[in-house]
Write a structure and sequence with these properties.
- Helices cover 0% and strands 45% of the residues.
- The chain is mainly beta.
- Strands 1-2-7-5 form a 4-stranded antiparallel beta sheet, with no helix packed on it.
- The chain has a single domain, classed as Immunoglobulin-like (Sandwich), CATH 2.60.40.1240.
- It is built from no helices and 9 strands.
């Protein structure tokens, strides 16, 4: 995780909720010998009480995608609506494959 920014989210599609949110920038580096398919990458955000935050597709969202070659890196931005009182701590869960372990990052995002 390279950056967390507090933003106001905009709902663009059904199921999205506008409001106070976070833009989370993640970087992944492929230290392996085979390409990684980032089209299947999943990022989930949980608030302090464990409730899943609502992901939003509006700006500045720019999810990871495509194939990541060995030795290469990629950056993606994920946007979530989450109340201020649920930001200490947050848990960011990242997975790109059923065979790879899920990475969990925990910290204060107030």
């Amino acid at each position: 995780m390279t950056q967390i920014r507090s933003i106001t989210t905009e709902a663009r599609f059904p199921g999205e909720i506008a409001g106070p949110g976070l833009a989370i920038t993640l970087r992944i580096d492929n230290a392996g010998s085979a390409p990684i398919d980032l089209d299947n990458a999943i990022v989930d955000l949980r608030g302090a009480d464990g409730t899943r935050a609502v992901d939003v597709s509006g700006s500045p969202a720019a999810p990871l995608s495509g194939s990541l070659a060995p030795g290469a890196g990629a950056t993606g931005v994920y946007v979530f609506t989450i109340p201020y009182d649920q930001r200490d701590p947050i848990s960011v869960l990242f997975s790109y494959s059923a065979q790879a372990p899920t990475v969990t990052l925990v910290g204060d995002a107030r």
